Amino acid sequence: MIRLEDLSVAINGRPILRDVSLDLAPGNVTGLVGESGSGKSMTALAIMGLLPQGARASGRAMLDGQNLLEQPEAALCRIRGRRIGMIFQEPMTALNPLMTIGDQVAEVLRLHQGLDRRSALARARERLDRVGLPGSRFPLTLYPHELSGGQRQRVAIALAIALRPDLLVADEPTTALDVTTQARILDLLKGLVRDEGMALLLITHDLAVMAGMADRVAVMQSGRIVESGTTESVFRQRRHPYTQQLFAASRHVPARAPRPATVPLVQVTQAVRAYRTADGGLRALDGVSLTIGRGESVGLVGESGCGKSTLARVILGLDPLQGGGIRLDGREVTAQGHMPRDLRARMQVVFQDPFGSFDPRWRVDRLLAEPFHLTGRPGDWRDRVAAALTEVGLQPADARKFIHEFSGGQRQRLAIARALIIRPALIVLDEAVSALDVRVRAQVLDLLARLRADHGLSYLFISHDLSVVRGISDRIVVMQAGRIVEEGPPEALVGTPRHEHTKALVAAMPRIPEEWT
Amino acid sequence: MLRYLSRRMIVMGLSLLAASALIFSVTELVPGDPASFMLGTGAQPETLAALRQQMGLDQPLPLRYAAWAGAILQGDFGTSFTYRTPVAGMILERLQVSLPLAVMALALAVAVALPVGLYAAARRGRAGDGLVMAATQLGIALPNFWFAMLLVLVFAVKLRWLPAGGFPGWSDPAAALGSLILPSLALALPQAAILARVLRSALVETQGQDYIRTARAKGLTTGQTLRRHALRNALIPVLTILGMQFSFLLAGAIIIENVFYLPGLGRMIFQAITQRDLIVVQSAVLVLVAAVIAVTFLVDLAYAAVDPRLRRA
Q1: What interface predicted TM-score (ipTM) does this complex get?
Q2: Are A80 and B308 inside 8 Å of each other by CB?
Q3: b or e along A340-357 (b: 16 or more beta carbons within 10 Å of the residue's beta carbon)?
Q4: Do B218 and A93 touch (CB under 8 A)?
Q5: Which pLDDT tens digit goes with each residue over A292-329?
Q6: Do A288 and A388 fall within a single domain?
Q7: A51 plus A191 within the same structural domain
């Protein structure tokens, strides 16, 4: 049993955690929920003794009667990996790219048990089998880049549980994964808690994931636990206003104008996008046909690698087609430099990562005015930048700021302002709200709904998250392996899916039980 | 792996071909015909013409290139205009000094840079790191001939441990090695400083990676994470620098060769240029270019040895 008592952390004198108390009981899943910056990850790192430089922790983190916060580094090294294991959010980068998966799991065993390489590898094999990577398909000699994101997360879990620790800390373990992969990883974690009797500290911003996993839950805000209890009681009662806000935001559906009569804007016919790969060829798009009406919002869902982003790229004229065609306003969309500027100016795109999609050395006015190179910069461009900023809920004075002065949600508003400034007909939103906290996400979704109503915009809204797409789309299109397998209005598609793949996606959607709401 | 290798080899062959053609045509375009240079300004036109014919200088450029390249493939680099001896022999003789010198200097540089870089990265932001950064800055800034003179003063003049210059030849290997120690030290100092800085910054960058955090969560100490996980990942930029340094050391040691009176490749090329001994310049430059290309190929192989993503590409 690990118990946190009045754990407080300050970094360079600034308080980050205040009086956090938690019991992490064996065989139990304890959930920490809250928005970014609320202190969830810092709590985990404090338990691990891996706080960043300049951080000072006080209070107690008790394991077997000893306070982890007072242990010397050498003692903590013996505890990490053996008594407490941890997995992180980003499976793509969490493993050493130059080491085989077998060696990475075996390293824990060799380090703590002094096993020789051979017996450590034999044990690593058992643990990899346990997390669903059987030896027949996943030999120990594989390198991380030969595995998918979900498979890599399984390796990370295998090495975290290799020594059957008392506590497994999982910090947003499925946030970077598809819904179906997420469901499988969550199942695995549940099974491990049940079979091995370990305690699991699950950190997530996703209330629905929490509802299906945690026995007890603690809601964090600004470094404090504002509410805690059994998951059911916290979800049913929602005593703290912040808990209520989180709930409201996660279930938020923006007001949607009735679907206008559809004049086609984008027509994709039998599009084929093929790549040559080492083992033959890959058809990222295998005869895709899709129409987006003027003013229509189309949601595009599917697992990673199904061709969603490729479809977005060909529609934007960024990738060439090997077959079929795409028309916008009846004019042909062609890749690379062949497309006329005025046609290109009819479409804009907003990407997932609000941190990587801006040049950090440019000021906001220059960033926002960039699409004008397609149309020619008008004399009143500064006024238009100011108007665009106002429209997305920012200040005209923000035009002189740099991008690092904004939060993630504000940056995503800037990305939308940049897309809007030349008044396009279509905006492609590629996982545009996936990286945002629930309350910010709700605001951005409202903003998108309002802008669409005001300007008659069409959206192609790409996401792996069916629950978000459902709220903003007039029609949902489901892709699998380069093909569209089903499409229909959101209610019908989620309510009565017909295709097997849609059924799997809907079944994998984490849900808060109806009776708790 | 095979595909990666064969692609690298094709690139190597093409680079050699292009480089040889370029070297040949550039030296052809330089004003000052070797025949007129050999005979002096007062030569009779008929004598000049006869010599040019004898040297094959009256043939068209592509033919001369083909003949030159064909001969080189058989190990015949031609005859020096000035010394009337085969160029191949001259280059070989000089390489016996320059190659061991470059290898020793590089080995020294790596032997110093590796622990220093690791040490600085492990103490990032602390006093030890600051000290190393200052020292390496100085190592880069110090002209190596000055350092060479200092070495001579201390180890040759005062302590009389090592010779101040000259090269006795490989018939006495111990004496030959002894005469290369001070020059290789002088050459290694700035290279070690550069290498240590590159290694440090590559390690510091690698230490911010997610997999380092994973390694710490496994229970590895900071030192263990650095050696077992960060070092290999930081090697790629270091290998790139290493390859460039070797190429530089092979021919760029001319100042050090002069300070220590070493009969190396750099001095030979310099003399050949002043004497307009074009055939020597051409051949020596070609040998150097071939060495650079070969080193680049070796660096590519080393990349593949370090990084499995390249092996299985």
Answers
A1: 0.83
A2: no
A3: eeebbbbbbbbbbbbeeb
A4: no
A5: 999 899 999 988 888 888 999 999 988 889 989 999 98
A6: no
A7: yes
